[in-house]
C-alpha cells in the first residue's frame, strides 16, 4: 500500500512544496497528491518537478481538480487538456474530478445523460495522454451512493473512467464502506482517507466551510478516532502493493495529525518499523501550523 498526503491540507498554510516534500519523505509517505490549483501555480517553478520529487523517494499519484462538466463543452475540453499536460509533467497517472454538482436523486435524467457523456469525453481525452479520469464518491454528485456509482460506471462506459473511493463519503451516503468497496473495487484506482466525530458533524466538509480560511474545523478527527471504523476497511487493502491512498486532512495541526495517522496505518497493516525522523528538518509539533526550528 502506498500512502500520500494531499497539498490541499495546506491550503491555508504558509508552507512551501519543498517543505512539505521533505517532511513527507522523512515521515514515510510515498507520494504527494497535488491539488489542481497548486499544480498550476507551480508551472513557473520548473526546478520543482517529478525528477526532484523522485530524488526524495516521492511521486505524484494524482492531480485533484474540479472539471466543469455542466458548463461550456469547449471550455471543459481545454481545461481537461491543460490538466492532462500538468499531470504528465508530474508523471501522475490519475486525475480526480466530481460527477456533477447535484445528488443522484436530484439530478434529472437528461442532466445525468449529459454528465455521463461529458465524463466519457474527458476520459477519452485523459486516455490519449495515458491517464485515468477518476470520479470521487461524494455527496451532491452522481457518485453519492454505491448503486448510483455503479450505474454511472456503466453509463460512462469508458476504460479510462475510474473511481476515487472516499471511504467517509461512502459511509455518509448510507452505504457500508466494506460492502460498497466489494462492489466498486473493480473500478477503484485511488482512495481518500479521512474521518469525522459523528454524523452530526458532517457539515464541516461542506465546501463553503472547509475551503474557507475562517471555517469551522470542529468535528474533524484523526483517521482512527472518528465514527467510521477503518480497521475492517484496511483489512480489505492489506497486502496489495497496488493500492494507492491519500490522507485527506482538512483540520489544523497538519504535520502532527498526518504523522500520527501515517504511523497508525503502519501499525494496523503490520509494519512495525519505526518512522524515520528528519535530522535536518525538525518541526515543532504542538503548533497549529508547524514551523522549522
From TrEMBL:
Pfam families, alphabetized: AP_endonuc_2
Residue ranges constituting the Xylose isomerase-like TIM barrel domain according to the UniProt record: 23-251
Protein name: Sugar phosphate isomerase/epimerase
Keyword NADP: no
GO molecular function term, any single one: isomerase activity
SUPFAM superfamilies: Xylose isomerase-like
Transmembrane segments: none
Annotated InterPro entries: IolE/XylAMocC-like (IPR050312), Xyl_isomerase-like_sf (IPR036237), Xyl_isomerase-like_TIM-brl (IPR013022)
Keywords of this entry: Isomerase
